[in-house]
Amino acid sequence: MGLFTKDIKSMNDLFVHQLQDIYYAEKQLVKALPTMAQKASDPQLKQGFLSHLDETKTHVTRLEQVFKMHGAEVKAVNCPAIDGIIEEAEEVAGEVEDKSVLDAALINAAQAAEHYEITRYGSLIAWAKQLGRNDCASVLQKTLEEEKAADKKLTTIAESKVNMRAAS
Amino acid sequence: MGLFTKDIKSMNDLFVHQLQDIYYAEKQLVKALPTMAQKASDPQLKQGFLSHLDETKTHVTRLEQVFKMHGAEVKAVNCPAIDGIIEEAEEVAGEVEDKSVLDAALINAAQAAEHYEITRYGSLIAWAKQLGRNDCASVLQKTLEEEKAADKKLTTIAESKVNMRAAS
Predict the structure, then answer these.
(1) CATH number, position B103
(2) Within 10 Å of residue B147's Cβ, how many Cβ atoms?
């Protein structure tokens, strides 16, 4: 958020603000994912978190690229939404003892983060196109596809084994 | 969250905990939506927020029904994720002066809440089925469909006019 009120005056300002917001979010996820991988018991889930950590680092780099393409300063602003999502993930994970139930809780937590990113990238892409920045939109689109794929992969892991194991 | 650590011992506990979490989230949205409707300028968007307020009240009632069907106490637990999403919505909305840009920002904020709910209901439905509670799953499914429809409606409003107006 800006230091002054009413500092978003145009669609362009909103676009840049949202880039700064998701840049912060991606960087927070780079910090959170190793812990999630460490807590996961299912090997495929653990590996999934580690692969997504690599992807997330690429998403950070892509955002830096978009800032530069758009002539904006590479900058992060606090994003209370992702902070809340990560805080909740940590709280819930801290309360679960059973390993299989913990895996189910971790998947649920990770999917909340994925969905947050999916909605933010969705808006960013729509706004970039509206601003005539199809070049930025196409870079952001790559990340969006990876977030959607990560979300689907988590659903598959949950539904193919983790939920069943957790309920048994 | 519970008062004691490690108080989620089973998939059933996780299911009930998540019900309490989304129950809190829906009730927070019942409080937030009238302000969003008030801030919106586009009549269709304003009306959309008000219609979704009515739906959200129904979601609260449906959750109370699911708690009872499942023999669990109707109770809310703090949900830092939705608090973060709403806090961010209020912060961004407070920084935008232009009415069209504000509409675009409001849609983006509302979609973050919708996506949060979509992911939570998705997990709840999968867990309910795993727990042999198809009756609960089918009540939750109705809400999930409405959240998805609300999200799509917001995308349509954004892409058909709001984004274009905001960028002009």
Answers:
(1) 1.20.1260.10
(2) 23
Is the residue at A89 inside a domain?
yes
Question: Which of B17, B18, B98, B123 to probe the A interface (max A CBs under 10 A)?
Answer: B123
Interface probe with A: pick from B82, B111, B115, most Cβ of A within 10 Å: B115
The half-sphere exposure of A112 on its side-chain side, counting CA atoms within 13 A, is 32
Non-local CB neighbours of A66 within 8 Å, separated by 6+ positions: A19, A136, A139, A140
Share of chain A above pLDDT 90, in %: 92
Alpha helix ranges (H) inside chain A:
11-39, 43-69, 80-95, 99-130, 134-157, 163-167
Structure ipTM? 0.91
Please name the residue of chain B whose CA is at the shortest distance from the CA of residue A88: B80
- Report CB contact under 8 Å: A120, B108: yes
Distance from CA of A57 to the nearest CA of B (A): 22
Identify the helix (H) or strand (E) that includes residue B62: helix B43-69
Secondary structure (H, E, C), B102-119: HHHHHHHHHHHHHHHHHH
pTM over 0.90: yes
CB contact under 8 A, B88 and A108: no
Structural domain contains residue B111: yes
Q: Domain limits at B24?
A: 11-167
Which amino acid is located at A28 in the chain? Q
Under the banding of pLDDT at 50, 70 and 90, the label for residue B5 is low
Write out chain A residues lying below 8 Å of B156, CB-based: none
Instruction: Kindly state whether residue B3 falls inside one of the protein's structural domains.
Output: no
Give the CA count within 13 Å in the CB-facing half-sphere of A163: 21
Cα separation of B111 and A123, whole Å?
9
- As for how many domains chain A has, the answer is 1
Cβ contacts (< 8 Å) between B95 and chain A: which residues?
1-2, 5-8, 17
**Exposed (0-12), middle (13-18) or buried (19+): which is B161, by Cβ within 10 Å?**
middle
Per-residue pLDDT at B30 exceeds 70: yes
**Does residue B83 belong to any structural domain of this protein?**
yes
